[in-house]
Design goal:
Blueprint: E1 2-6, H1 14-23, E2 27-30, H2 38-44, E3 50-52, E4 66-71, E5 74-79, H3 91-100, E6 104-106, E7 114-118, E8 121-125, E9 136-142, E10 148-154
Parallel strand pairs: 1-2, 2-3, 5-6, 6-8
Antiparallel strand pairs: 1-9, 4-5, 7-8, 9-10
């Protein structure tokens, strides 16, 4: 299964949509800060499942700011990250992910793309898909056997 993970679009969806057209993933995840931008993915790719969480700039959103779900055999913990102070440390995020049983942890908020590994945890921040000099997103492949392969791509 191939996932496309976007975060921090901040109303700039052209790059996200172009990346989605190019990659044709099996599932989309939007990690907030303009969660309404994920509606454009839902509109253009109505048959592709979409998970989305609210960020700190998603005022009055009814969407949760974190969620845990199972994809195949992989438990996923997704959040924008602001509630876990990820600009300073990811320790609270790792703690929450551990107690959710996650093997894949997704977060945004910092606008800095990175992939980290902590034991059995794969932790991915796709960066900002809408702001900065080098907008980015993440492609994550989950094998039927539970292997996780993640990479950051430029928009």
């Amino acid at each position: 299964m191939k996932l496309a993970v976007f975060s921090d679009t901040h109303g700039r969806t052209e790059g996200m949509l172009a990346a989605a057209r190019r990659m044709r993933p099996d599932l989309f995840i939007h990690l907030g800060d303009h969660i309404r931008d994920s509606l454009e993915l839902a509109h253009e790719f109505p048959g592709t499942p979409l998970y989305a969480v609210a960020g700190n700039c998603d005022f009055a959103s009814r969407e949760p700011d974190r969620m845990s779900f199972l994809l195949g055999t992989t438990q996923v913990f997704a959040t924008h990250g602001h509630a876990y102070a990820v600009k300073y440390t990811i320790d609270p995020l790792l703690n929450a992910a551990h107690f959710s049983g996650a093997r894949l942890v997704l977060y945004g908020h910092t606008h800095i793309a990175r992939i980290d590994y902590f034991g059995e945890l794969t932790v991915v921040n796709p960066g900002s898909a809408g702001l900065g000099r080098s907008p980015s997103f993440a492609i994550i492949e989950l094998s039927d056997e539970g292997r996780i392969s993640a990479r950051i791509l430029d928009i």
